[in-house]
Automatic annotation (TrEMBL):
This is HTH-type transcriptional regulator PgrR. It comes from the Bacteria. Residues 36-88 form the HTH lysR-type domain. Belongs to the LysR transcriptional regulatory family. Gene3D superfamilies: 3.40.190.290, Winged helix-like DNA-binding domain superfamily/Winged helix DNA-binding domain (1.10.10.10). Keywords: DNA-binding, Transcription, Transcription regulation. SUPFAM superfamilies: Periplasmic binding protein-like II, Winged helix' DNA-binding domain.
């Protein structure tokens, strides 16, 4: 078959290019990488002297590395005279492929070092919905303004999660549910479970004096991700009181905590939730709290990460931001 000369030329270039790549890949080992870097810089400047000055090495060192590379590849890459230097055809092809790759690697490494000064990149946070709504969402604009090079992805998950397996940088959970090997920092004060309802509901149905009185009330029930109905937790009032639970009874069941709060605000019944989730409604008087003496404080929310060693600057920035918000939160609870 007869072919056009330009097509044959392209095929010839591709074949020659493939041969050089094959030679490079077959010979590739860690000791070859410095020589490739030396060649790329020399070829870019068309000068051993300028390349040596840029890299901070001697001209002789560069020359030795380039000669070693030519021996390994069994290809002449440079024409050298006492006054001039140029690339061979093979050298030009290798340079065209290798130099852009080298610059990309160098830029990436430089960016990694730069992030120690200014946080940048994507931070993926695995968080429960209530933590996201109360601790993160109210401050998203401030966070983005303070860290313009950071991206924040919230991965909503009410179940206990393996942040390493899920590809997340950090997680937010109640302190008592954290794995021991995690590095965890508190981002809220101690919290309590709060039993609440509207003033109108209590006016119609009366106030429960003890957790046992809840059997006479319509309780809004929450179905957990496990499928079980959340049991209401209390602590007895005597010294060294023990923890016990009450199985709530009621006509409404939901797996959405916001929906449960909206039902309570309509006067549909009592609900139990973490106090931080209903604080604004308690402050406004839309909801009233009962049975508080039976609700013992527990460890609040923590932000946690796999390790403290070489913690990415972007993760440290988020931790420091949320820790700073903890101080103001203490005055609201």
């Amino acid at each position: 078959m007869q072919c056009r000369s330009d097509v044959c030329f392209v095929i010839d270039i591709n074949l020659h290019y493939s041969c050089i790549l094959k030679l490079t890949m077959n010979s590739m080992d860690p000791s070859l990488l410095p020589s490739l870097a030396c060649f790329a810089h020399v070829a870019h400047h068309r000068s051993f002297t300028k390349a040596a000055a840029e890299m901070g090495v001697s001209r002789a060192n560069l020359s030795q590395n380039v000669k070693a590379l030519e021996r390994r590849l069994n290809v002449k890459l440079l024409y050298r005279t006492t006054r001039d230097m140029s690339l061979t055809e093979e050298g030009q092809r290798l340079y065209d492929v290798w130099y852009p790759a080298l610059i990309t690697v160098e830029r990436t490494v430089r960016t990694m070092h730069d992030t120690h000064d200014e946080p940048s990149g994507l931070v993926r946070v695995n968080t429960s919905r209530v933590a996201a709504k109360t601790l993160l969402e109210p401050h998203l604009q401030e966070f983005c303004t303070r860290f313009p090079k950071l991206q924040l992805e919230l991965v909503m998950d009410d179940a206990l999660a393996n942040i390493v397996a899920d590809g997340c940088d950090a997680g937010i959970r109640i302190g008592e549910s954290l794995a021991e090997h995690m590095v965890a920092v508190p981002i809220t004060p101690a919290l309590e479970m709060a039993v609440v309802a509207t003033p109108a509901y209590f006016e119609q149905h009366g106030l429960p004096a003890t957790p046992a009185d809840l059997s006479q009330h319509n309780c809004l029930r929450f179905r957990q991700t496990s499928g079980a109905i959340h049991a209401w937790e209390f602590t007895s009032r005597e010294a060294g009181g023990h923890t016990f639970t009450v199985e709530p009874q009621g006509r409404i069941i939901t797996n959405d905590d916001d929906g449960m709060i909206r039902a309570a605000l309509q006067g549909a019944g009592l609900m139990q939730h973490i106090d931080i989730a209903v604080r604004q409604h308690l402050k406004s008087g839309a909801l009233v709290r009962v049975l508080q003496p039976w609700c013992k404080p527990f460890a609040g929310f923590y932000i946690y990460a796999p390790t403290r060693a070489q913690m990415p600057t972007k993760v440290r920035a988020l931790i420091d931001f949320l820790v700073a918000k903890r101080e103001g939160m203490a005055n609201l609870l």
